[in-house]
């Protein structure tokens, strides 16, 4: 008489919450009906599943964890010739975390948002590190979505550290070789702009701010702001002028830039002074951030004590004055593409000296 072999069919579909509960009950009942040997086999199949499905299988694995270590060891050392138990324990983890190679001998692993059992993650991570070291890989990057914050501690315990964080993910990194860590640091600079906008009456566009270090000082200053991620300097200048004053403007040139350090959470700062040509003239000050805005004669702006008492501001005024008098050429933007990715970008250059015009 041939003994019947239990068969477990796992079907995944989009169902209602009530149907999902019914399926979970049926699934749990089916799991409990299996013998220990078949549970071990099912556990092995879960671990051998492609990494992109591991998160979906984590709940199944948790249901299999009631088998104690004694039962597992005794089953694995049994003299039975059954093919279900022929694999040694270390063979249970045959898969590694799925990733793509970068251009510098490293690997980038991007985790999905599916739930992932931390103990399974550790097993896969250890197996992955072992294989990557054998392959001579260098920097290992793991991009963890915010939904998998429970995997941060296990990864750190395996040698990973924080590289940078964004609103939706945390980037962890690990340098595998015994050599000096050659991985690039997180972004080191913040980029800002100041807009020099002058009309035909030699008046410049200035604002007083409601917040920040200039609040309540009475200082009139250029519209300023921070360049957004993925935004070009020339576009940021136009946007900030529009947001703070309601003035439509066209980018002309970068007149100068300043670099400073330890400015924002110990990051460095690049500040670009940009010249813009106004296309409209009726001011609508931004209510949330701007106390007042106006067109001010250039000489009156330059005579402010704040400007006269600060070397940097005096230098900027001298540059703007030279530009107004036609004695200075800045850097205009020329559309171009990069040599490797063919992405569109801008090259800022002194066209007048280049063309002789």
From TrEMBL:
Organism from which the protein derives: Catharanthus roseus
Protein name: Uncharacterized protein
């Amino acid at each position: 008489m041939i003994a019947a072999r239990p068969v477990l069919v796992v079907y995944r579909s989009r169902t209602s919450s009530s149907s999902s509960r019914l399926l979970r009950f049926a699934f749990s009942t089916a799991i409990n009906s299996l013998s220990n040997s078949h549970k071990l086999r099912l556990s092995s199949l879960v671990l051998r599943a492609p990494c992109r499905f591991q998160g979906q299988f984590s709940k199944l694995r948790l249901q299999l964890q009631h088998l104690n270590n004694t039962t597992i060891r005794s089953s694995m050392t049994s003299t039975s010739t059954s093919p279900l138990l022929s694999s040694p324990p270390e063979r249970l983890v045959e898969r590694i975390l799925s990733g793509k190679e970068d251009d510098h001998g490293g690997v980038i692993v991007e985790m999905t948002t599916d739930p992932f059992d931390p103990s399974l993650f550790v097993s896969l991570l250890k197996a992955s590190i072992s294989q990557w070291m054998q392959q001579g890989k260098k920097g290992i990057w793991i991009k963890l979505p915010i939904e998998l914050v429970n995997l941060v501690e296990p990864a750190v315990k395996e040698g990973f550290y924080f590289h940078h964080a964004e609103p939706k993910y945390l980037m962890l990194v690990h340098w595998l070789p015994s050599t000096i860590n050659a991985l690039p640091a997180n972004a080191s600079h913040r980029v800002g702009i100041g807009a020099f906008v002058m009309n035909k009456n030699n008046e410049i566009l200035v604002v007083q701010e409601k917040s920040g270090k200039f609040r309540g000082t009475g200082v009139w200053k250029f519209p300023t702001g921070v360049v957004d991620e993925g935004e070009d300097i020339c576009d940021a200048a136009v946007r900030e002028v529009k947001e703070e004053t309601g003035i439509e403007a066209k980018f002309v040139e970068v007149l100068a830039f300043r670099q400073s350090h330890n400015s924002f959470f110990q990051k460095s700062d690049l500040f670009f002074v940009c010249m813009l040509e106004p296309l409209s003239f009726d001011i609508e000050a931004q209510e949330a951030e701007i106390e007042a805005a106006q067109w001010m004669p250039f000489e009156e702006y330059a005579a402010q004590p704040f400007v006269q008492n600060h070397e940097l501001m005096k230098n900027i005024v001298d540059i703007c004055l030279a530009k107004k008098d036609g004695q200075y050429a800045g850097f205009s933007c020329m559309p171009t593409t990069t040599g490797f990715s063919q992405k569109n970008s801008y090259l800022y250059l002194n066209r007048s000296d280049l063309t002789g015009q």
